[in-house]
Amino acid sequence: MRTRLVPVKLDSYKPLREIVFESMRDAIISGVLKPGERLMEIQLAEEMGVSRTPVREAIRKLELEAFVIMIPRKGAYVAGVSHKDVADVFEIRTALESLAAGLAAERVTADEIEQMERVLIFSEGEEPDLEKIVAQDTEFHDLLYKASHNNRLQQILANLREQIQRFRATSLAVPGRVLEAVKEHRAIVEALAEHNSELAQELMTAHIVTAENVMFETFNPDIVKNNLAKIKQDI
Fold first, then answer.
1. N or C: which end of the chain has fewer CB within 10 A?
2. What are the residue boundaries of the structural domains of the chain, listed by start?
3. pLDDT tens digits, residue range 25-70?
4. Is CATH 3.40.1190.20 the classification given to domain 16-78?
5. How many of the other CB atoms lie within 10 Å of CB of 216?
6. Residues 140, 134: Cα–Cα separation, whole Å
């Protein structure tokens, strides 16, 4: 039996349907709602403490964002992740993030370098908690996007964010991957500090390709589960 969803906290600045949507999307990304699981409106509404209407609206929006599939006469199910899905997302991510790294090397400020350095130091000394590790990895990449000083590029990457997040935890849960990722981040920061655009692009491309390869190696759910248990051995 899966973990129950937590009741949503009402936010006067957001419509209820948006809060429910974000809660369900986060549950899919984190694996609380697993691929292939049927989404029962009544059960989900009870768990989150809301009526069925915002749940129904959230499911429709999740379908539009490819997190949910609708099967005629059967209902809504959490969408699975295929090798093609992974390849497509990483193909786009490689192109966009290498571009961001190249631009950042040309435009990054001393303060932005310092912010990235602080994230790296915190990552190297942090306890092996996967949720925190994912948050730090996300923060590092967000800082790099910002350092590109290209608002349009940042917006495009923001639109891809949730698809990236769905794979990020799986990749970072692999034994040894966290330490390697931090080393790769540090090399990228050094290239940015030297304003070496070509090297920054090359390092970012290698970083994303490595993450993609790790994803393919752990595509078996049982392997992912074992990797999560072993992560403490690598930090």
1. N
2. 16-78, 83-234
3. 988 887 788 888 999 999 999 999 999 999 999 999 999 988 899 9
4. no
5. 12
6. 10
